[in-house]
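In this section we walk through a basic example: taking a raw amino acid sequence and producing a predicted 3D structure, encoded as C-alpha cells. The instruction is simple. Fold the sequence below.
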Amino acid sequence: MALTKADIASRLFEQIGLTKREAKEIVEIFFQQICEALAKGQQVKISGFGNFELHDKKERPGRNPKTGEMIPVSARRVVTFRGGQKLRARVEVYAGKNTDDTQSTKQD
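The resulting C-alpha cell sequence is shown next.
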C-alpha cells in the first residue's frame, strides 16, 4: 500500500476536522517546506521520524549492463533519508512479527 498526499489530507480531514481544502493546503505546504530547505542545501530533521540529507556524489565509472560498454556516471547531488530511532524501532517490531510468522509456517 502506498501512502499519498491525498491520503494524508484525508486523515487530517477525518481526524482533526479540518476542511478538505485546509487539509490539502497543509500537506502541500509541509512538503513544499521540505523541498525548499533541501534546495537551499539544508538538512531536514523531523523529530521521531528521521532526517533528510543531501549528499554529493562524485563522477564514477559505470557500465551498461546490456552491452557491457563502459560509460561515465556524472556527478550529482542526491537526497537520502535516514529513519530515526523511533521509526526504526516500530519497523523492527513489525518486521519481527512477519519474520516469526514466516518461520513458523516453514517449519510446519
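Looking at the output, two observations stand out. The mean pLDDT is 88. The longest strand covers residues 50-57. In the next section we compare this with other chains.
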